[in-house]
Amino acid sequence: xxxxxxxxxxxxxxxxxxxxxxxxxxxxxxxxxxxxxxxxxxxxxxxxxxxxxxxxxxxxxxxxxxxxxxxxxxxxxxxxxxxxxxxxxxxxxxxxxxxxxxxxxxxxxxxxxxxxxxxxxxxxx
Length: 125
Known about the structure:
This protein is of the alpha+beta class. It has one domain (2-110). Helices cover 38% and strands 21% of the residues. The protein contains 2 helices and 5 strands; from the N terminus they run βββααββ. The longest helix has 24 residues, at 32-55. The model is unreliable at 92-107 and 116-125 (pLDDT under 50).
């Protein structure tokens, strides 16, 4: 299963790069705003963990014990974001849509829409 940037338009989803997909493939189609929210949320958590690793002195590993709960909290948020993308329950209109692309040059592909469900923010802003 792949994630693609797409613009939902009724029962039609326009993919930004349709040539990346096979004739029949399961795809999660996100609007640009939805994908941006997931991506920035995950990048913030990864950057936080990397910054702790970069600024920690390797000679004083005992200080890591104090940072461990904060690191685990960020990993938990990452896990929640990934789970919310890959869950089988509908997150948005076009989750787990089967796309049939028999014409490789076609730009518009028909998808089977799911019921609309409001996406909850996984991170407090």
